[in-house]
């Protein structure tokens, strides 16, 4: 046993990868839903990031210095796809192409009110299509035990294979006020 300091949370992180696209049949988005590559400003990006990720304690991009996040968002190595229902942003597919020939699925998710509406398959098809539209060696992603409990199974069904597990301990973003204290009730809050 390893004690986790008060005000922190531990996450068991599973890393997954693939060497070629596994979803070859096009998955259409439901009527009224679109995916467009967008150049969001930092404020709009953070609003979407929070809307999608707060239930899972996503916080890294909320605490990142604004100029650093702006550089990521403006980089040619970043592709940001926004999923919209009519005009409202409800999801994110963010790819990071790296100099070593890898592509990371940095962020992938939808707001909780849009789950169960058939968006995951089309979003993953989009992610794989875009990743492998460039000459990459590997497409990888990681998820943790605080993410949606269906995430790991979803990634594996989409063709990703686990290759590493790690434990990350980080400050609980609810303690610092980054997220509301009532967010993520599935994660014990210990101060």
Could you provide a short overview of the structure?
It contains 5 helices and 7 strands. It has 191 residues and is an alpha+beta fold.
Describe this structure in words.
With 191 residues, the protein is an alpha+beta fold. It has 5 helices and 7 strands, in the order ββαααβββαβαβ. The chain has helices at residues 42-53, 60-63, 66-74, 120-131, 151-157; strands at residues 8-18, 33-37, 78-85, 88-97, 102-110, 138-144, 161-171. The longest helix is centred in the first third of the chain and has 12 residues, at 42-53. The protein is globular, with a radius of gyration of 17 Å. The model has no long low-confidence stretch (mean pLDDT 95).
- Tell me roughly what share of residues is in helical segments: 10-25%
Terminal residue distance? 19 Å
Contiguous uncertain segments of 5+ residues: none
**What multimeric state do the chains show?**
single chain
Overall 3D geometry? globular
Task: Provide the succession of SSEs.
Answer: EEHHHEEEHEHE
Task: Kindly report the spatial arrangement of strands forming the biggest sheet.
Answer: 2-3-4-5-6-1-7
Q: How many β-strands, per DSSP? A: 7
Count of DSSP helices? Answer: 5
Report the sheet-strand fraction.
25-35%
Structural class by helix and strand composition? alpha+beta
Mean pLDDT: 95
Largest sheet: 7 strands, mixed
- CA-based gyration radius: 17 Å
